[in-house]
Structures are given as C-alpha cells and as structure tokens.
Amino acid sequence: QLNRGKVDVSIRLQAGEASVPGFEINEDVAQAINEAANQINRILDNPAHVNALDILRWPGVLSAPEQDFSSAREAALDLFRQTVEELTVVREREGERLRPLFEERLTQMKALVATVRGGMPELLKAQEEHLRERFQKAKVELDPERITQEMVMLAQKSDVAEELDRLDAHISEVTDTLKRDEAIGRRLDFLMQELNREANTLSSKSIDAGVTRAAVDLKVLIEQVREQVQNIE
C-alpha cells in the first residue's frame, strides 16, 4: 500500500501478572555448582559462603519455558494494517487537497512560457535596433552583411525555442501524471528536476531583463510544487 517513504514501527510488550512464566531449575547443574563450591571451600583457609542466589545467577541453572507470542503478533499486525489503511486515506485526502495548488502553479508556468515565446520576435527586433544604434554611435559604416552576421550570432546565443518547447512538454506531462490513479510521487519529483533544469538554461541564455524575470518566476513556481511533491506518494 505504501510505495514511497519509510515506516518505522516499534513494539513494546509488557507482560501482565497472569502471563509471568514460571522458571525451571536445572538441578543437575545446581548440584554440580554446589559440590564444586564445597570442594573449593575445603581448599581455602578462609572459605566464602555460597548461598542459593549465587547458584541461581550461574548460567544454565534457571531456564524459562518458551512463550507463545503468536496471538500478540497477530494483534500487532492487525493494528499495523489498520494504521496503514488510515494513513493511506489521509494521504489520499492530502493529495486531493494539493491538486488545485499544483494545477494553479502549472497554469502560471504555462502563462510565463507563452509570454516569453510571444515576446521573442519583438525582442530580437529590438536587439537589432540596439545593434544598429551601437554601430552608429561608434561611427561604424552600417554593413548589411555585418549586421546580418551579428544578428545570426545573437539569435543563436539567445535561441530558447527548444527550452520553451521542453518546458511546455514537461508541464503537459505533469498535468497528465496528476490524472493517473497510481503512485506518482517519484515521477513528479523527476519532472520537477527537468523543469528546473530548463528554467536554469532559459535564464542563462537570457538577453533581456523580462526573460530573466520570467525564468526566476518559473523557478519559484517549480520549487513551490517540488516542496509539495515530497508529500505525494
């Protein structure tokens, strides 16, 4: 019933008065110890008195009959099964409570990705204008071929289409995973790692403060979901 995490169980059994076992005395061992003590006392000048408790402390003199704990074991297992069932119900209820939070964060992620994607053409156009202004201020002749080369290099450096595509794909995969009627915690954890990786790449390729802010906002949303994913089985 539990597919993720670890459960530690400790059982302490306290016997009642009626269940205290009787002890059996190994008379042969006790007799042998007593005879050995008497022999030593005859040798010593100042013999020590050996009482019954001294003999009882000797290994093998006392033994307890083997007890049957089968009923206690079954009772403990039944209680454990009941506890696991109750835990499962609580976790299912917790998962349903978290679902709206996940869906809200995923919607926000998709909106951020769409905003960055929609702004890329205008951003590249603005970068081209900025490049032209730099050439003009430096009083460099505007060579169309040079400008084209610079723009190609800039476009390659700032091309985040693949990252945006992968972000969309991972967000869709998370949405589909939430609909599964099975243990999804580990899969969600993996997808959060993938989303975070793409958000980091998006940030590193950013040539605009707006894209950088979007990448940071994405990472915040991903971290919020990732923290809650740890509570999902």
TrEMBL record:
GO molecular function: hydrolase activity; RNA endonuclease activity
Needed co-factor(s): a divalent metal cation
Domain Endoribonuclease YicC-like C-terminal span(s) in chain numbering: 120-233
Residue span(s) of domain Endoribonuclease YicC-like N-terminal: 2-99
Alphabetical list of InterPro entries matching this protein: YicC-like_C, YicC-like_N, YicC/YloC-like
Keywords: Endonuclease, Hydrolase, Nuclease
Family: Belongs to the YicC/YloC family.
UniProt protein name: DUF1732 domain-containing protein
UniProt organism field: marine sediment metagenome
Taxon lineage: unclassified sequences, metagenomes, ecological metagenomes
